[in-house]
Automatic annotation (TrEMBL):
Main location as per UniProt: endoplasmic reticulum
Subcellular locations according to the entry: Endoplasmic reticulum membrane; Microsome membrane
UniProt lineage: Eukaryota, Metazoa, Ecdysozoa, Arthropoda, Hexapoda
Cofactor: heme
The protein, known as: unspecific monooxygenase
Length: 158
């Protein structure tokens, strides 16, 4: 094991407090959300086969945050590039955004954005042209038993 750190002590402390505080709050208030923090909480309890330490959970949450930030910022950069090259697409998208704003009294929420068909098409095409994950940088170094994939399976999936 190396003593290499990616973040300063202050930044590491911030993430530790943020993640552990969120988990503690959810446990206290019995909040269940279908997200990564919930999965990590289940893993810590042993509900997902492996038992993880607090440091394991914090590391996974930070990795998820950093990886998500990079892919989203790259996708937004390519989206702006493609919209600049295709003004007719930009105009049609702006029109849909204006219509959505009018329909929802100026409010944008998850449901209203889900109903934006052209936006979905633009983002799908962007991800086809500029996929964020063109290569994987992780290698499994040990076997992991995921259990039986279904009731008819004769053996575990390793």
């Amino acid at each position: 094991m190396t003593k290499f750190t990616l973040f300063s002590e202050e930044t590491s402390g911030f993430f530790k407090e943020l993640i552990m505080g969120t988990m503690k709050d959810r446990e206290m208030r019995k909040i269940i959300r279908p997200d990564m923090i919930h999965l990590l909480m289940e893993a810590k309890k042993g509900g997902l086969i492996a038992v993880w330490t607090d440091d394991d959970i914090i590391a996974q949450a930070v990795l998820f945050f950093v990886a998500g930030f990079e892919t989203v910022s790259s996708a937004m950069t390519f989206l702006l590039h493609e919209l600049a090259l295709n003004p007719e697409v930009q105009d049609k998208l702006v029109e849909e955004i204006k219509e959505n704003k009018e329909r929802n009294n100026g409010k944008f929420d998850y449901n209203s954005i889900q109903n934006m068909v052209y936006l979905d098409m633009v983002v799908s095409e962007l991800l086809r042209l500029w996929p964020p994950g063109v290569s994987m940088d992780r290698i499994c170094v040990q076997d992991y038993n995921l259990g039986k994939p279904n009731d008819k399976a004769k053996r575990d999936f390793t």
